[in-house]
Amino acid sequence: MNTLSISKNKKIYFASDQHFGAPSTDSSKIRENKFLEWLNYIEKDVGALFLLGDLFDFWFEYNSVVPKGFVRILGKLAILSDKGIRVYFLVGNHDLWMENYFITELGIPVFHKPQEFNLNGKSFLIGHGDGLGPGDYGYKRMKKIFINPISKFLFRWIHPDIGVKLAQYLSINNKLISGD
Length: 180
Hints:
The chain has 180 residues and is of the alpha/beta class. It is built from seven helices and seven strands, in the order ββαβαβαβββαααα. The protein starts with a strand and ends with a helix.
């Protein structure tokens, strides 16, 4: 269990499912600016920030490449982390292939499963939520394929320009993947 003690004049914030990049990078700019405004607003009193997955509509970490775009968000998260603000990322269904970029570059721990947190003496189970309850068998089968090490290995061999375009197409156009 992760234990956090947050001072009384600080707050705990949660954000989920921004899906930056969907339906297109250009159309996400308005949401990106609003999210950055929100991050700037909460900076004065944030004790902990929980990002509950799907910050981007697609995230895959090749060995030396991450998806292009939204560097202002990454930069702002790095600033918050550098200031000692605790930021936690709990992986969602659109960022299943997250590895160590957030940890090494931003100082933000990444969790691939829901985590129990003790916040000021109260216990919380925090996670993204997709596929956790009963049913949703199509997604659960798809997730097993996506997180399979062989699938990751094979996808890594696709050039990032092609791999990212393919993933964006599937995310936006395939109802099983997009959740529409």
